[in-house]
Amino acid sequence: MTFRISRRQTLAAAGAAAAVAAIGRPALAQSLPSGTIRMLVGYPAGGGTDVMGRLIAEKLKERTGANVIVENRAGASGTLACDTLKNAPADGTVIMYAPSAATVAQTVTKKVLPYDLEKDLATITLAGTVSTVFVVSPTIGVKNLPEYIAWLKKNPKKASFGSTAMGSSTHFFGVEIGQAIGVPLEPVAYKGAAPLIADLSAGHAPAGCGGLTDFLTHHRGEKLRIIAISAPKRATAAPDLPTISELGYPKLASEGFYGFYGPAKMAPAMIAAWNKELRAVLEAPEMKQRLIGLGLEVQTSTPAEFAQRQSRDLVTFAASMKAAGFQPE
Protein backbone atom coordinates (compact mmCIF):
# COMPACT_ATOMS: atom_id res chain seq x y z
CA MET A 1 0.00 0.00 0.00
CA THR A 2 1.61 3.29 -1.10
CA PHE A 3 0.63 6.80 -0.05
CA ARG A 4 1.86 10.14 -1.34
CA ILE A 5 0.84 13.74 -1.20
CA SER A 6 -1.45 14.53 -4.12
CA ARG A 7 -0.48 17.28 -6.56
CA ARG A 8 -3.61 19.19 -5.65
CA GLN A 9 -2.80 19.07 -1.94
CA THR A 10 0.82 20.05 -2.55
CA LEU A 11 -0.27 23.09 -4.52
CA ALA A 12 -2.85 24.04 -1.90
CA ALA A 13 -0.32 23.66 0.91
CA ALA A 14 2.25 25.70 -0.99
CA GLY A 15 -0.32 28.42 -1.60
CA ALA A 16 -1.25 28.45 2.07
CA ALA A 17 2.42 28.67 3.07
CA ALA A 18 2.87 31.65 0.77
CA ALA A 19 -0.19 33.28 2.28
CA VAL A 20 1.20 32.71 5.77
CA ALA A 21 4.35 34.56 4.74
CA ALA A 22 2.20 37.40 3.48
CA ILE A 23 0.36 37.80 6.75
CA GLY A 24 2.86 40.38 7.89
CA ARG A 25 1.71 42.75 5.13
CA PRO A 26 -1.58 44.31 6.33
CA ALA A 27 -2.95 44.85 2.83
CA LEU A 28 -2.87 41.12 2.16
CA ALA A 29 -3.86 39.87 5.59
CA GLN A 30 -7.03 37.78 5.85
CA SER A 31 -9.12 37.81 9.00
CA LEU A 32 -11.28 35.02 10.34
CA PRO A 33 -14.94 35.06 9.29
CA SER A 34 -17.50 36.84 11.44
CA GLY A 35 -20.40 35.00 13.04
CA THR A 36 -20.35 31.55 14.59
CA ILE A 37 -17.38 29.29 13.90
CA ARG A 38 -17.77 25.53 14.35
CA MET A 39 -14.87 23.37 15.50
CA LEU A 40 -15.72 19.75 14.69
CA VAL A 41 -14.56 17.04 17.08
CA GLY A 42 -15.18 13.43 16.08
CA TYR A 43 -15.54 12.08 19.61
CA PRO A 44 -18.04 12.41 22.48
CA ALA A 45 -17.96 15.26 24.99
CA GLY A 46 -15.68 14.64 27.95
CA GLY A 47 -12.98 12.65 26.15
CA GLY A 48 -9.40 13.79 25.71
CA THR A 49 -9.93 15.23 22.21
CA ASP A 50 -13.05 17.10 23.28
CA VAL A 51 -11.39 18.56 26.38
CA MET A 52 -8.45 19.87 24.35
CA GLY A 53 -10.75 21.21 21.64
CA ARG A 54 -12.80 23.17 24.15
CA LEU A 55 -9.70 24.68 25.77
CA ILE A 56 -8.47 25.84 22.37
CA ALA A 57 -11.91 27.13 21.34
CA GLU A 58 -12.18 29.21 24.52
CA LYS A 59 -8.76 30.76 23.93
CA LEU A 60 -9.70 31.52 20.31
CA LYS A 61 -12.77 33.37 21.58
CA GLU A 62 -10.61 35.46 23.89
CA ARG A 63 -8.01 36.18 21.22
CA THR A 64 -10.24 36.91 18.22
CA GLY A 65 -13.65 37.76 19.65
CA ALA A 66 -15.18 35.12 17.38
CA ASN A 67 -17.98 32.87 18.64
CA VAL A 68 -16.14 29.53 18.41
CA ILE A 69 -18.20 26.49 19.42
CA VAL A 70 -17.16 22.84 19.62
CA GLU A 71 -19.50 20.56 17.71
CA ASN A 72 -19.19 16.88 18.63
CA ARG A 73 -19.70 14.68 15.57
CA ALA A 74 -18.95 11.39 17.30
CA GLY A 75 -19.09 8.15 15.39
CA ALA A 76 -17.25 5.76 13.09
CA SER A 77 -13.89 6.21 14.89
CA GLY A 78 -13.80 9.93 14.13
CA THR A 79 -14.56 9.63 10.43
CA LEU A 80 -18.05 11.12 10.76
CA ALA A 81 -16.46 14.48 11.57
CA CYS A 82 -14.13 14.13 8.56
CA ASP A 83 -17.09 13.50 6.27
CA THR A 84 -18.93 16.46 7.79
CA LEU A 85 -15.93 18.70 7.14
CA LYS A 86 -15.68 17.53 3.54
CA ASN A 87 -19.19 18.83 2.88
CA ALA A 88 -18.92 21.97 5.03
CA PRO A 89 -18.75 25.55 3.69
CA ALA A 90 -15.19 26.44 2.68
CA ASP A 91 -15.48 30.02 3.96
CA GLY A 92 -13.53 29.41 7.15
CA THR A 93 -16.57 28.99 9.40
CA VAL A 94 -15.93 25.27 9.90
CA ILE A 95 -12.66 23.63 10.95
CA MET A 96 -11.86 20.29 12.57
CA TYR A 97 -9.60 19.21 15.42
CA ALA A 98 -8.61 15.58 15.01
CA PRO A 99 -6.00 13.00 15.98
CA SER A 100 -4.19 10.82 13.46
CA ALA A 101 -6.26 7.93 14.81
CA ALA A 102 -9.25 9.49 13.04
CA THR A 103 -7.43 10.52 9.86
CA VAL A 104 -4.31 8.48 9.05
CA ALA A 105 -5.41 5.28 10.80
CA GLN A 106 -8.84 5.21 9.18
CA THR A 107 -7.42 5.92 5.72
CA VAL A 108 -5.03 2.98 6.03
CA THR A 109 -7.37 0.46 7.66
CA LYS A 110 -10.61 1.11 5.77
CA LYS A 111 -11.08 -0.05 2.19
CA VAL A 112 -13.83 2.49 1.61
CA LEU A 113 -14.40 5.92 3.19
CA PRO A 114 -16.86 8.62 2.10
CA TYR A 115 -13.98 11.05 1.59
CA ASP A 116 -10.34 11.16 0.49
CA LEU A 117 -8.12 12.42 3.30
CA GLU A 118 -5.60 14.12 1.04
CA LYS A 119 -8.03 15.45 -1.58
CA ASP A 120 -11.06 16.47 0.51
CA LEU A 121 -9.45 17.90 3.66
CA ALA A 122 -6.94 20.75 3.83
CA THR A 123 -4.21 20.71 6.45
CA ILE A 124 -3.98 23.91 8.54
CA THR A 125 -1.50 23.23 11.33
CA LEU A 126 -0.14 20.44 13.44
CA ALA A 127 -1.19 20.87 17.08
CA GLY A 128 1.16 18.36 18.65
CA THR A 129 2.23 14.77 19.00
CA VAL A 130 0.85 12.14 21.34
CA SER A 131 1.90 8.73 22.59
CA THR A 132 0.00 5.49 22.67
CA VAL A 133 0.29 3.87 26.09
CA PHE A 134 -0.07 0.35 27.44
CA VAL A 135 -1.77 0.18 30.82
CA VAL A 136 -2.68 -2.44 33.41
CA SER A 137 -5.45 -2.67 35.97
CA PRO A 138 -4.40 -1.80 39.52
CA THR A 139 -6.17 -4.99 40.62
CA ILE A 140 -3.57 -7.35 39.10
CA GLY A 141 -0.78 -6.07 41.33
CA VAL A 142 1.95 -5.26 38.78
CA LYS A 143 3.92 -2.03 38.52
CA ASN A 144 5.98 -2.38 35.34
CA LEU A 145 6.39 -4.32 32.12
CA PRO A 146 8.69 -7.09 33.50
CA GLU A 147 6.19 -7.74 36.31
CA TYR A 148 3.34 -7.80 33.76
CA ILE A 149 5.20 -10.36 31.64
CA ALA A 150 5.70 -12.54 34.73
CA TRP A 151 2.01 -12.16 35.61
CA LEU A 152 0.99 -13.22 32.08
CA LYS A 153 3.02 -16.40 32.36
CA LYS A 154 1.13 -17.25 35.54
CA ASN A 155 -2.23 -16.19 34.05
CA PRO A 156 -2.12 -17.27 30.38
CA LYS A 157 -5.91 -17.23 30.05
CA LYS A 158 -5.89 -13.48 30.77
CA ALA A 159 -3.55 -12.53 27.93
CA SER A 160 -5.83 -9.86 26.49
CA PHE A 161 -6.02 -6.08 26.42
CA GLY A 162 -8.76 -3.58 25.73
CA SER A 163 -8.31 -1.24 22.75
CA THR A 164 -9.99 2.17 22.63
CA ALA A 165 -10.18 1.94 18.83
CA MET A 166 -9.69 -1.22 16.80
CA GLY A 167 -7.69 -0.71 13.63
CA SER A 168 -5.68 2.11 15.21
CA SER A 169 -2.37 2.46 17.05
CA THR A 170 -4.22 1.57 20.28
CA HIS A 171 -4.84 -1.83 18.70
CA PHE A 172 -1.57 -2.40 16.86
CA PHE A 173 0.73 -1.23 19.68
CA GLY A 174 -0.78 -3.79 22.06
CA VAL A 175 -0.51 -6.61 19.51
CA GLU A 176 3.10 -5.71 18.74
CA ILE A 177 3.99 -5.66 22.44
CA GLY A 178 2.59 -9.19 22.72
CA GLN A 179 4.69 -10.27 19.75
CA ALA A 180 7.80 -8.66 21.21
CA ILE A 181 7.49 -10.23 24.66
CA GLY A 182 6.60 -13.63 23.24
CA VAL A 183 3.11 -13.75 24.75
CA PRO A 184 0.40 -13.17 22.12
CA LEU A 185 -2.11 -10.60 23.40
CA GLU A 186 -5.71 -10.71 22.20
CA PRO A 187 -7.27 -7.28 21.52
CA VAL A 188 -10.74 -6.61 22.88
CA ALA A 189 -12.73 -3.78 21.28
CA TYR A 190 -14.07 -0.93 23.42
CA LYS A 191 -16.16 2.03 22.32
CA GLY A 192 -13.68 4.64 23.44
CA ALA A 193 -11.58 5.27 26.53
CA ALA A 194 -14.32 5.81 29.14
CA PRO A 195 -15.72 2.24 29.25
CA LEU A 196 -12.21 0.76 29.14
CA ILE A 197 -11.06 2.94 32.04
CA ALA A 198 -14.12 1.82 34.03
CA ASP A 199 -13.34 -1.86 33.38
CA LEU A 200 -9.65 -1.45 34.21
CA SER A 201 -10.46 0.33 37.46
CA ALA A 202 -12.96 -2.37 38.48
CA GLY A 203 -10.69 -5.24 37.47
CA HIS A 204 -12.92 -6.46 34.64
CA ALA A 205 -10.07 -5.93 32.14
CA PRO A 206 -6.47 -6.84 33.02
CA ALA A 207 -4.82 -4.45 30.57
CA GLY A 208 -5.52 -1.86 27.92
CA CYS A 209 -4.07 0.35 25.23
CA GLY A 210 -5.01 3.92 24.34
CA GLY A 211 -3.81 7.49 24.00
CA LEU A 212 -1.77 9.19 26.73
CA THR A 213 -4.23 12.10 26.61
CA ASP A 214 -7.06 9.73 27.58
CA PHE A 215 -5.24 7.85 30.35
CA LEU A 216 -2.79 10.20 32.06
CA THR A 217 -5.25 11.76 34.52
CA HIS A 218 -6.55 8.31 35.48
CA HIS A 219 -2.99 7.01 35.92
CA ARG A 220 -2.37 9.82 38.38
CA GLY A 221 -5.63 8.97 40.11
CA GLU A 222 -4.50 5.31 40.37
CA LYS A 223 -7.49 3.99 38.42
CA LEU A 224 -4.96 2.30 36.11
CA ARG A 225 -1.19 2.13 35.71
CA ILE A 226 0.71 3.14 32.58
CA ILE A 227 3.65 0.76 32.12
CA ALA A 228 4.93 1.81 28.68
CA ILE A 229 4.59 4.71 26.25
CA SER A 230 5.21 4.46 22.52
CA ALA A 231 7.00 7.77 21.93
CA PRO A 232 10.75 7.82 21.18
CA LYS A 233 11.34 10.03 24.24
CA ARG A 234 9.68 10.46 27.62
CA ALA A 235 6.55 12.60 27.85
CA THR A 236 7.02 16.13 29.16
CA ALA A 237 3.86 15.75 31.25
CA ALA A 238 4.98 12.43 32.75
CA PRO A 239 8.77 12.10 32.71
CA ASP A 240 8.54 9.16 35.10
CA LEU A 241 6.90 6.92 32.51
CA PRO A 242 9.31 4.62 30.62
CA THR A 243 9.35 4.52 26.83
CA ILE A 244 9.04 1.24 24.96
CA SER A 245 12.56 1.84 23.63
CA GLU A 246 13.99 2.09 27.14
CA LEU A 247 12.26 -1.16 28.00
CA GLY A 248 14.20 -2.92 25.26
CA TYR A 249 11.88 -2.72 22.23
CA PRO A 250 13.05 0.28 20.12
CA LYS A 251 11.40 -1.03 16.93
CA LEU A 252 7.98 -0.43 18.52
CA ALA A 253 8.59 3.30 19.07
CA SER A 254 6.02 5.54 17.40
CA GLU A 255 3.78 8.52 18.04
CA GLY A 256 0.59 9.97 16.62
CA PHE A 257 -0.45 13.57 16.13
CA TYR A 258 -3.29 16.03 16.53
CA GLY A 259 -4.00 18.70 13.97
CA PHE A 260 -6.43 21.18 12.50
CA TYR A 261 -8.12 20.80 9.12
CA GLY A 262 -10.44 22.75 6.84
CA PRO A 263 -12.44 21.79 3.75
CA ALA A 264 -10.25 21.24 0.68
CA LYS A 265 -11.69 24.25 -1.15
CA MET A 266 -10.84 26.72 1.63
CA ALA A 267 -8.89 29.60 0.11
CA PRO A 268 -5.14 29.68 0.83
CA ALA A 269 -5.50 33.10 2.44
CA MET A 270 -8.14 31.76 4.84
CA ILE A 271 -5.98 28.73 5.64
CA ALA A 272 -3.15 31.16 6.39
CA ALA A 273 -5.39 33.22 8.67
CA TRP A 274 -6.41 30.12 10.60
CA ASN A 275 -2.79 28.94 10.74
CA LYS A 276 -1.75 32.24 12.27
CA GLU A 277 -4.49 32.31 14.92
CA LEU A 278 -4.25 28.63 15.87
CA ARG A 279 -0.46 28.68 16.20
CA ALA A 280 -0.66 31.79 18.37
CA VAL A 281 -3.18 30.07 20.66
CA LEU A 282 -1.32 26.74 20.82
CA GLU A 283 2.05 28.35 21.48
CA ALA A 284 0.81 30.68 24.23
CA PRO A 285 2.72 29.62 27.38
CA GLU A 286 -0.36 29.03 29.55
CA MET A 287 -2.18 27.04 26.85
CA LYS A 288 0.93 25.06 26.03
CA GLN A 289 1.32 24.00 29.66
CA ARG A 290 -2.33 23.01 29.94
CA LEU A 291 -2.13 20.85 26.82
CA ILE A 292 1.15 19.29 27.93
CA GLY A 293 -0.58 18.44 31.20
CA LEU A 294 -3.16 16.50 29.19
CA GLY A 295 -0.42 14.54 27.42
CA LEU A 296 -0.06 16.54 24.18
CA GLU A 297 3.48 17.50 23.16
CA VAL A 298 2.61 20.84 21.56
CA GLN A 299 4.14 21.31 18.12
CA THR A 300 2.80 23.59 15.38
CA SER A 301 3.63 23.77 11.68
CA THR A 302 2.89 25.35 8.34
CA PRO A 303 0.10 23.74 6.28
CA ALA A 304 2.73 22.21 3.97
CA GLU A 305 4.75 20.76 6.85
CA PHE A 306 1.60 19.21 8.28
CA ALA A 307 0.71 17.67 4.90
CA GLN A 308 4.20 16.18 4.65
CA ARG A 309 4.01 14.75 8.18
CA GLN A 310 0.64 13.21 7.40
CA SER A 311 1.95 11.62 4.21
CA ARG A 312 4.90 10.06 6.06
CA ASP A 313 2.60 8.72 8.77
CA LEU A 314 0.36 7.05 6.20
CA VAL A 315 3.35 4.99 5.12
CA THR A 316 4.62 4.11 8.61
CA PHE A 317 1.13 3.29 9.88
CA ALA A 318 0.58 0.91 6.97
CA ALA A 319 3.79 -0.89 8.02
CA SER A 320 2.55 -1.09 11.62
CA MET A 321 -0.78 -2.52 10.45
CA LYS A 322 1.03 -5.19 8.44
CA ALA A 323 3.22 -6.10 11.43
CA ALA A 324 0.10 -6.54 13.56
CA GLY A 325 -1.39 -8.87 10.95
CA PHE A 326 -4.40 -6.62 10.35
CA GLN A 327 -6.10 -6.44 6.96
CA PRO A 328 -8.04 -3.36 5.72
CA GLU A 329 -11.75 -3.77 6.23
Average pLDDT taken over every residue = 90
Strand order of the largest sheet: 2-1-3-10-4-11
Structural class: alpha/beta
Question: How far apart, in Å, are the first and last alpha carbons?
Answer: 14 Å
> What value does the Rg take, in angstroms?
20 Å
Low-confidence stretches: 1-11, 17-28
Q: What pattern of helices and strands is seen along the backbone?
A: HEHEHEHHEEHEHEHEHEEHHEH
> Helicity range of the residues?
40-55%
- Multimeric organization: single chain
In one word, what is the shape? globular
Q: Helical segment tally?
A: 12
Q: Provide the β-strand percentage band.
A: 15-25%
Tally of strands? 11
Q: Main sheet, how many strands, which sense, barrel?
A: 6 strands, mixed
What structural keywords apply?
disordered N terminus, 12 helices, 329 residues, globular, 5-stranded mixed beta sheet, alpha/beta
Polypeptide structure, described:
The protein has 329 residues and is α/β, with parallel strands linked by helices. It is 42% helix and 19% strand. The strands form two sheets. It has a six-stranded mixed beta sheet with strand order 2-1-3-10-4-11, with helices on both faces. Strands 7-6-8-5-9 form a five-stranded mixed beta sheet, with helices on both faces. α2 links the parallel β1 and β2. α1 packs antiparallel against α12.
